Amino acid sequence: RLKKKYWFNIKERPEIVILEGWCVGAKPQSNYLIKKPINILEKYEDQDLTWRKSVNEKLKKEYKRLFAMIDYYIFMKIPNFNMVFKWRLHQENKLRKKLGFKKKIMSYNKIKRFIMFYQRITLQMTKDLSKSASIVMLLNKNHKIKKVLFRT
Fold first, then answer.
1. Which DSSP category does 4 fall into?
2. Which of 43, 65, 103, 140 could, after both became Cys, cross-link 146 (CB 3.0–4.6 A)?
3. What phi and psi, each to the nearest 5 degrees, are found at residue 75?
4. Are 56 and 117 in contact (CB under 8 A)?
5. 146 by DSSP, 3-state: which?
6. Cα angle vertex 39, ends 38, 45, to 5°?
7. Which tens digits make up the pLDDT trace of 104-131?
């Protein structure tokens, strides 16, 4: 990301704006669903549901308003959640080779912990956006697109 001093102003309204991110389009879950922990992080470190309730509230309010401005979704569907870990580990290993130890690279255990924060949202998005996105790209285990579905 560029520092703010390097930002530039757009003089005309753009025809297309692409908003990319891991949780773009995520929807909140019912209170019933967030009560059941889905991983060890939720089970032992969010017993009082503080994290899950906070995320859910943001999805119900601020993010719902933001996502309502999006006309079309392109969803890249993972084969399964285990691939998130595998791909993130691969990404960190590439960074380690490129940057050496100059930068802080996540360890195996830190990656495991990191993705647990996003597991609930990712799994819910897999259900929701697989049905509602304008375009769904089905990815294989090698990160390649194996099929594209178009919805009208």
1. G
2. 140
3. -115, 125
4. no
5. strand
6. 110
7. 889 999 999 999 999 999 999 999 999 9
Which residue shows structure tokens 């590439």? 94
Sequence length of the chain is 152
pLDDT of residue 1: 75
Which parts of the chain register pLDDT below 50? none
What is the C-alpha to C-alpha distance for residues 25 and 20, in angstroms, rounded to an integer? 10
Paired tokens of 95: 């960074």
Token pair in block for residue 71: 């006309």
Phi and psi torsions of 116, nearest 5°: -60, -30
